[in-house]
Amino acid sequence: MKKVIFVLIDGLNAETAFRHMGFMEHLVEAHAASKYVVRSELPSVSRPLYEVLMTGTPVSVNRISSNETIRKSTQKNLFQMSADAGIATAAAAYYFFSELYLHAPFHPLTDRFHSDSASAIQNAMFYYDDSYPNSHLFLDADELIIRHHPGFILVHPMSVDYIGHQFGGGSGEYCKAAFNVDCILSRFLFKWIEEGYSVIITADHGMGKDGIHGGTSAEERMIPMYILSGQVDAADYSGQTVSQLHIAPLVCKLLGLPLSEHMIEPKIPGLHPAV
Ligand SMILES: [Zn+2]
Questions:
Q1: Under 8 Å between Cβ of 7 and 201
Q2: Which end of the chain is more exposed for a tag (fewer CB within 10 A), N or C?
Q3: How many whole angstroms from 49 Cα to the centroid of ligand 1?
Q4: Architecture of the domain delimited by 3-255
């Protein structure tokens, strides 16, 4: 059974990841992970890009155009496609994911913990405070993995984005937040790999030096992606830029799912052809 853990580090730009995530960069140097630069879709804003990442469709198609577009997605998405194929799904994520793939609006009193085998995201722990610590978020995710053995799980820490808005994308605080995620990943990644997961680590958008994102600058748009998978030849491919529209279909390939009609054939250097 093919399994994927999708780590979405909110607001992490490529430059900061490549300079400060020493554990991830070690895995690349040791030929245990592959590394890419991804160009985000526009606008470089969270909710639209969550939908891009989960559906492989641009905003012009999915119409999730802003953080204020509070409604359920109408697109075929990785959670529903997995669940339909009998792959168990889970998420430890910001509440926007509950609104996009379960129901909107989100109510903290009833929606923070979710368990329903008939829904697209079958088991989830959602947070709604942007300062929710990574230490707790990764333990939430690991608990979901231990308890439910999902074949597809989203792990979505917010702290890099939260710190970036306060101190700016080039700040020492922002760099330290990226290093903090790297440290936490170093505690979980070997275990997850041993359990048979492919792991994708990427971001939705980056962060400008002025502490904002939404536009077209490299700091806002160019984001990292690392892949640890037996289905991808580990190497440094960061000299090329990957379109963010290729990530959802990449997940389908890693899970052995057919692409939706709106997804494009993923062009990911190192990805083995389907067998
Ligand atoms: Zn943000």
A1: yes
A2: C
A3: 11
A4: 3-Layer(aba) Sandwich (3.40)
Structure tokens at 260: 């939706």
Starting at the edge strand found earlier in the chain, the sheet holding 197-202 runs 113-115, 123-127, 89-94, 152-155, 3-8, 197-202, 222-228, 34-39, 236-243
pTM for this predicted structure: 0.98
Dist. CA 194 → ligand 1 center (Å):
33
Domain boundaries, the chain: 3-255
Q: What angle do CA 86, 271, 51 make, to 5 degrees?
A: 55
109: tokens are 């009193």
CA of 223 to the centre of ligand 1 (A): 14
Cα of 40 vs centre of ligand 1, distance in Å, is: 14
Distance (Å) from CA 149 to ligand 1 centroid: 30
Summarize pLDDT for 175-216 with one digit per residue, the tens: 999 999 999 999 999 999 999 999 999 999 999 999 999 999
The pair phi, psi for residue 54, each rounded to 5°, is -90, -15
How far apart, in whole angstroms, are the C-alpha atoms of residue 221 and residue 253?
Answer: 25
